[in-house]
Amino acid sequence: MDKKKNKEVSGFLKGVERIGNKLPHPAMIFLILSIIVIIVSALAEAFGTPVTYFDARKGKEVTIGAVSLLNLDGLRYILNSATKNFTGFAPLGTVLVAMLGVGVAEWTGLINTSLKKLLSGVHPRLLTVVVVFAGIMSNIASDAGYVVVIPLGAIVFANAGRHPMAGLAAAFAGVSGGFSANLILGTIDPLLTGITTEALNNAGMDIAIDPTCNWFFMIASTFILTIVGTFVTERIVEKNLGTYSGSYKPDNMPISDVENKGLKLAGISILIMAIILIIGLFGLPKLPGLAVLREIDPKTGQSSISNFMHGGLLPVILLMFLIPGLIYGKKTGKIHNSHDLIKGMTEAMRSMGGYLVLSFFAAQFVNYFGKTNLGTIISVNGANFLKSIGFTGLPLIISFVIISAFLNLFMGSASAKWAIMAPIFVPMMVNLGLSPALTQVAYRIGDSSTNLITPLMSYFAMIVVFMKKYDEDSGLGTLISTMLPYSIFFLLSWIGLMIVWYIFGLPLGPGAFIHI
């Protein structure tokens, strides 16, 4: 990129940031958006028309219209649900539980010492690659990457003398923008495949696909997105951010002998816990009964770790930070008794005060959007539009990716959108000779690419709080302008990869091809 183009990009992104940050505090923005949703819901109920679609999760046709919140029933709902919306906000428990453990590890100095040790063994040129790749791979642990990898990305960059917000952005790009990609199967694969299969069955199509149907494509995607994420971070984002002048100062003191010993003991504790976890999940060859964390799936009758990955993993993450942090703190003299341990947890919770305030208003907005059915109505109408434009082959697939990316700005849940779109598009694509695996890949590309720039993404508010740790003046505008290049480049490069796959007819996964 030449200097002229770089200045144009920088000027555009700075413009986005300035406009965004002239807006009120993010909490007030969510309040204003909530009011807008309430008003729009009344207009949509009065003048809009209901939509009918086949819901693959419910296995039947559903007709819904907009639900107004600008009436007495709406007023009662707003008042009666406010507390439940807040306490039921998905990221809230995830973040707070994880931070109890992460906070202790950070307060004792374990994280800082570990990162200094890591940086001493990582070539500076590979640092961005490692952060982006770690973010992409973290989705195997569901949402854990949001509360672990993203803040660590900022600290790693800061300790290396680079802009911490660039590290945060690189990690966020990997975790959220690359949510569908991975080298191994994640929780999203069986979830989406189940909805796709249900859509095929209800359309009377005797076609079966496996959770591995997108695996080959997602393996390639992991490497492509790592390369693209590294390029965007180093060539666009860091140059746009400039030299860091915030208050955060990394600890540049050398690692002492005591810290090394504490680090070694903490590492041993992590290894022991990892072995126990693996045994709990998979048992031993001659002792399968030791796999106590597995449960029988009532639908398939097979042993599954699905419940653990969605619920039980979070307390394990807490322990994975808490216990090593405790051991390290005891060895280095930071922790002497239980009072010190609780002090570390308290410090972590004190830093989350701003996030709690922001979460309250974000939770109301997200809940109102779902309650009014506006997100579903937009998705159904968008899907029907794409079906009506009459494209076939590659132009149709590319259009589907773009529509999926656009709808993701209004409806955050990947499975909820797919449950609406799959019954429409999967059979339609099959009738045009395109495989369900390809339709699912196209959806996943669009759904992941715009996660980075939509406030409806559950963890968006949390990322704003993380950014404020390094720049108190940052806001929604800063985050969106920082992440916009990732979103654009991820979308374009992913579409390019799909075009290559389509032209050469490469298998998307074991036994899963482009055409029927």
Task: For this entry, give a set of tags.
single chain; 516 residues; mainly alpha; two-stranded antiparallel ribbon; 3% strand; globular; disordered N terminus
Write the layout of secondary structure elements.
Blueprint (H helix, E strand, L loop, with lengths): L2 H19 L4 H22 L3 E5 L4 E5 L7 H16 L2 H18 L2 H12 L5 H11 L6 H4 L1 H11 L4 H14 L10 H15 L12 H27 L15 H26 L12 E2 L6 E2 L1 H27 L5 H13 L2 H19 L2 H15 L4 H15 L6 H18 L4 H14 L10 H9 L7 H29 L12
Antiparallel strand pairs: 1-2, 3-4
Helix pairs in contact: 1-21, 2-15, 3-15, 4-13, 4-14, 5-8, 6-8, 6-9, 6-11, 8-9, 9-11, 9-21, 10-18, 11-21, 12-13, 16-17, 16-18, 17-19, 17-21, 18-19, 19-21
Structure description:
The protein has 516 residues and is mostly helical. It has a two-stranded antiparallel sheet. It contains 21 helices and four strands. Residues 1-9 have low confidence and may be disordered.
Brief summary:
69% of the residues lie in helices and 3% in strands.
Estimated radius of gyration: 24 Å
- The oligomeric status of these chains comes to single chain
Biggest β-sheet: count, sense, barrel? 2 strands, antiparallel
Average pLDDT score: 82
Total of helices:
21
Q: Assign the structural class, choosing from mainly alpha, mainly beta, alpha/beta, alpha+beta, or little secondary structure.
A: mainly alpha
The first-to-last residue Cα distance is 41 Å
Q: Give the tally of β-strands.
A: 4
Reading side by side through the largest sheet, how are the strands ordered? 1-2
Low-confidence stretches: 1-9
Q: Approximately how much beta-strand content do the residues carry? A: under 5%
| Dominant shape | globular
Tell me roughly what share of residues is in helical segments. 55-70%
Order of helices and strands: HHEEHHHHHHHHHHEEHHHHHHHHH
